[in-house]
Write a structure and sequence with these properties.
elongated, alpha+beta, single chain, about 190 residues
């Protein structure tokens, strides 16, 4: 031991504790980003699969050849088409898949909100902001979603803000895409 080592342990503790806390914050930020991307990927997959099935429902029960006055058609329409009037977050009675990218983006955004937060936009925005997604619900961009050769491509672009902003690591741009074949009714 040296004569002037008074306070040396305190100095070492300060350096060690600060280093440990920085590492814990970085690790916590990585966990938040992983949780955000996992939640977004799952919700995007559910959205894409639901929209792909939605195309079958719309083409088969609305535009196809079950007699319009038959009891079967009225029953199936009440199951699949009428709920969309009350909650557009889970079903749609329009042929959005024949439209332009804007129509697909609108339907994809609504369906995404449905699967993320049960159709509640305020809750969806709160969830996205808790994952540190820049802009919350308004920060999601579905405009690059398309239908190509009966394959539905739902793409969402967003930015995640890192939990602790140091070393130039402040935001990460993320693009996630899910593809599903449209279920279109055909006469066989």
């Amino acid at each position: 031991m040296y004569k002037n080592d008074k306070g040396l342990i305190t100095l070492e503790a300060c350096i060690t504790v600060i280093t440990f806390m920085i590492l814990m914050f970085v690790l916590f930020g990585i966990f938040i980003m992983f949780a955000a991307q996992s939640t977004m990927a799952h919700t995007l997959l559910q959205t894409t699969q639901s929209l792909a099935l939605d195309a079958y429902t719309t083409s088969r029960f609305q535009n196809r050849s079950l007699e319009s006055d038959s009891a079967t058609n009225r029953f199936l329409s009440s199951l699949f088409l009428e709920p969309s009037v009350d909650n557009p977050h889970f079903t749609s009675d329009t042929t959005w898949y024949y439209g332009d990218g804007h129509a697909i983006a609108q339907v994809a955004r609504l369906r995404f909100i449905g699967y993320l937060a049960g159709g509640n936009e305020v809750t969806a925005d709160t969830i996205l902001r808790s994952f540190r997604i820049k802009g919350g619900l308004d920060g999601l961009d579905f405009t690059n979603s398309t239908v190509v050769n009966n394959d539905l491509h739902i793409r969402v672009d967003y930015t995640i803000k890192f939990f602790i902003q140091m070393w130039g690591l402040t935001e990460i741009d993320v693009r996630q895409e899910s593809i599903s074949r449209l279920w279109l009714a055909r006469d066989y």
